[in-house]
Amino acid sequence: MEKKTNFSLSSRLLIIMFLLGVGFVIAAVSSALVIMWQHGLLAGLTLQAVFAFILPAVAAMAIFYRRPFHAMALDCAPSWMSLLVVVLFYIVSLPAMNWLVSANEAMTLPSWMSGIEQWMRIAEDSAADSTRQLLDIHSIGQLLLTIFVVGLMAGVSEEMFFRGALLRTMQDSRMGTHAVVWIVAIIFSAIHLQFYGFIPRMVLGLWLGYLLVWTRCLWVPIIAHTLNNSTVVVFSFLANKGIVPESYGDDLGLPADGGFPWLAILSFAASIALAVWTYYHFCVKERRKEKII
């Protein structure tokens, strides 16, 4: 990545976070103006995607690098193999992720942290109310609009900011790759302020981060993120129509009372195996070919 100027890592991170903060303020003010519209919540999320994530990411990378879209790994096309991996991993990891979600939701804090836990519960309930409103979908038009906002816009904007700007900027430093991927995944999960989904979202962030590092193309984690969000939207629509049971697929991997989570363990092992194969294919096999060529 060709730098424009020799900013230190701390300076670059401060600039990114400053732009993020300014973007959130602009998005909050803009959202307040449209919240009373029929689709005000979706409009507000779109404004947040543009002002809080996309524009700060592009602006920061334009400050740091001569070719910002190249630095963000956007000037590429995902291979068919990377797309196949994204779909397979989503399917294979579903039972393990469901178990993680259930375990995280059952988390309790010590009694001396009851005040913090109460605040976390209030934030979680508020987020859950917003999610229920978003997923109260009953028409094809509303379904397509929600997929566009919750699936595509969220996938593009969050990956552009967290992986395309934050991770790529931190990669261009002396920090180790694994440390960078983990730090960004933790920040990605924390910024959602949904503490009872923190661990599964962090794990998702790890997968998205390694996808970028291994494939060197931001479109791959963008597609993975969009697939994850859009699938939730589609199944919510089908459940609202009575086509599938409510929370369809959410119980996959969860054992009966007192049972051992065999399916979740198998899913976890298969997910690790697929991740290792993905690393080998994109980081070992493909780069050997590049050296030969």
Q: Tell me the number of strands.
A: 0
Report the sheet-strand fraction: under 5%
Uncertain segments are none
* Structure class: mainly alpha
Summarize the biggest pleated sheet.
none
Count of separate DSSP helical elements = 10
The whole-number mean of residue pLDDT values reads: 89
| Helix and strand pattern | HHHHHHHHHH
Tell me the helix content. Answer: over 70%
Radius of gyration: 20 Å
Distance linking N and C termini? 22 Å
The coarse overall form would be globular
Q: Features of this protein?
A:
single chain, globular
Textual characterization of the structure:
- With 293 residues, the chain is mainly alpha-helical.
- Helices cover 75% and strands 0% of the residues.
- It is built from 10 helices and no strands.
- The chain has helices spanning 9-34, 40-64, 68-71, 80-105, 114-134, 140-171, 177-190, 198-215, 219-240, 262-292.
- Helix 4 (80-105) packs antiparallel against helix 10, helix 8 (198-215) runs antiparallel to helix 9 (219-240) and helix 8 runs parallel beside helix 10.
- The longest helix is centred in the middle third of the chain and has 32 residues, at 140-171.
- The protein is globular and about 55 Å long.
Quick synopsis:
The protein is mostly helical and about 290 residues long. Helix content is about 75%, strand content about 0%.
List the helices and strands and how they pair.
Elements: H1 9-34, H2 40-64, H3 68-71, H4 80-105, H5 114-134, H6 140-171, H7 177-190, H8 198-215, H9 219-240, H10 262-292
